[in-house]
Write a structure and sequence with these properties.
About 40% of the residues lie in helices and about 15% in strands. By secondary structure, the chain is an alpha/beta fold. α17 packs antiparallel against α18.
């Protein structure tokens, strides 16, 4: 019987992965480079990107588990490096693995309990007995533990920290007082890595948020951040080359299941899950969790986004009155901006980047600015779908159904039905946060709602959305028709004005060559009723 290959969806243990013969994309070249060229590292990547698996691989290496690396890059590279450096290959070291993935941190004593749990087992291993008074002093306990491990084994210690910032992320929006308490605790705890430098062989810390602007790491100035380095751009995630080298049977099975050619399957995978970039000129990578899940389910589903909803980020963007259309390719930040730790009402963009909702799509060397946008369709449509309820009266669970109804109307040529739906959605926009005189912000909300509807329709029909202050214009292409929309959202133009603008500026000219019916729709806005007042329709050509 020809059994399907075992795909490591959710597998975080390198030992389990190798012993149980799950498919493994070899990342051990990066491991070899790290352990032979540095000492204390930090890596920021979004959740479900393979950080835990990479840490587990490091743990296996430093525990001397040579058999797990058979057939991988490191098997030969370690022997060669040992000869060059005049040391024994596959040396073993005491490993302290500090995993903050486990648990919830919203209770006052949650971080205390987790730190105590992480330290207790190795303390028992090295015969450390604590008094009741000593237990809450976690930095002192870590320092004593490192020294004890060094003295008893004669080997420097390896420290691996997984998701160092999870306690901070969970409390960032929920409990500012507890968040501040956690920052102070972790600052003291991680500073031990610097003070115990002589006893440490290697340290590697991972998280979602960047460290340079956080007081937590102010004392840990020997930490080498590889998060935006070109040479480590592919350390987590799956490159296009790795996809085709390692997943040919899965690509073929998905092609058959979806009824697509191989090239069309690859193009769809790329559009849906590729596009993450973590360096100025680095390679793009696929989201590994989504890619593996798609292969396992044989379906182009939405996997990564469904594992967590960024509710507080949606709220921040709404409260900051951010111009939502700019998220899709018009965000610019310098490197300091990318590394800002805390999401605040004034600027949620760094956390959107660090958590994977935005990624690098360009870099201006002269201006030293990174250009950000959505990495792929899975993230684009997932995030916009979460935004729509904040800018309309739609409940989150009804968003997908409502967008599909818009698509059906436009495919069937039901312009009046389409516009009635649009009128209803805009009429449902809440206004409690705006004063009567704050017309500009209300207009921006109208414009955002229109943008979100048309952008989300892009999952099913070809759309172009062009937004600027005071108006929004959109293009929708179906099999036999092209619809050009002009919305006069500022209240100083009528439906007739909008339709005349389309004609006078000859928006339809470039579409008439397609031989399709071109339909023009101009809409005016009623400021008093706070919704679309009326619309006019004209057919340009057949």
């Amino acid at each position: 019987m020809n059994l399907p290959r075992k795909l490591p969806v959710g597998i975080q243990s390198f030992k389990d992965l190798r012993e149980k013969r799950f498919l493994y994309v070899d990342k051990t070249e990066y491991l070899s480079r790290l352990v032979n060229n540095g000492k204390v590292y930090f890596l920021s990547r979004p959740r479900r990107f393979g950080k835990s698996l990479f840490l587990s691989t490091l743990a296996a290496y430093f525990r001397g588990q040579k058999e797990l690396f058979t057939g991988l890059y490191l098997e030969k590279a370690e022997e060669e490096a040992a000869v060059q450096e005049g040391r024994n290959a596959w040396e073993t070291y005491p490993v302290l693995y500090l995993d903050f993935n486990t648990g919830q941190y919203l209770e006052d004593d949650a971080l205390h309990e987790r730190l105590d749990s992480l330290l207790k087992e190795p303390e028992n291993l090295y015969g450390i007995v604590l008094t009741k008074e000593e237990k809450p002093f976690f930095a002192s306990r870590l320092e004593r533990l490192i020294k004890a491990a060094y003295q008893q084994t004669g080997k420097q210690v390896v420290i691996l920290v997984d998701e160092y910032d999870k306690p901070l992320l969970q409390t960032m929006d929920a409990n500012e007082t507890l968040n501040e308490q956690y920052r102070n605790m972790l600052k003291a705890f991680y500073s031990v890595i610097k003070t115990c430098d002589q006893y440490i062989r290697f340290a590697f810390l991972t998280g979602v948020t960047k460290f340079s602007k956080i007081s937590i790491f102010s004392d840990l100035n020997n930490l080498e951040d590889i998060s935006l380095r070109n040479d480590y751009a592919g350390i987590c995630g799956i490159t296009g080359r790795e996809l085709e080298q390692n997943f040919e049977p899965e690509i073929e099975a998905l092609s058959i299941a979806e009824g697509l050619t191989r090239s069309k399957t690859l193009a769809t995978l790329k559009k849906q899950y590729d596009g993450y970039r973590f360096a100025k000129a680095g390679m793009n990578v696929y989201n590994p969790f989504s890619l593996l899940s798609a292969f396992k389910a044989k379906d182009f589903g939405s996997y990564w986004f469904s594992t967590g909803t960024p509710t507080f980020l949606v709220n921040y963007l709404k409260e900051a009155h951010y111009f939502i259309p700019d998220l899709d390719g018009n965000v610019e930040l310098n490197e300091a901006g990318l590394e800002t730790y805390r999401a605040v009402t004034e600027n949620a963009l760094p956390i959107l980047f660090q958590s994977g909702y935005l990624t690098i799509i360009g870099y201006s060397k002269e201006a030293r600015l990174y250009k950000l946008g959505f990495p792929n369709d899975e993230v684009r449509y997932g995030f916009l779908e979460n935004l729509l309820p904040a800018y309309s009266g739609l409940p989150l669970g009804d968003t997908g159904k409502s967008v599909w109804q818009f698509v059906q109307d436009i495919r069937e040529g039901k312009v009046d039905s389409f516009m009635e739906r649009m009128r209803s959605i805009i009429a449902g926009i809440p206004y409690d946060n705006f004063s009567e005189g704050n017309v500009k912000l209300r207009e921006q909300n109208y414009q955002t709602a229109v943008y979100l509807i048309f952008a989300l329709m892009g999952q099913f029909v070809q759309t172009e959305v062009h937004c600027s202050t005071g108006r929004a214009d959109c293009v929708v292409t179906t099999a036999d028709s092209i619809y050009l929309f002009e919305f006069k959202l500022s209240g100083n133009g009528t439906a007739e004005d909008a339709l005349n603008q389309i004609k006078e500026k000859e928006y339809a000219a470039k579409y008439q060559v397609d031989g399709k019916k071109v339909v023009l729709i101009g809409a005016g806005f009623d400021e008093k009723k706070r919704t679309i007042k009326d619309w006019q329709v004209a057919v340009v050509s057949l």
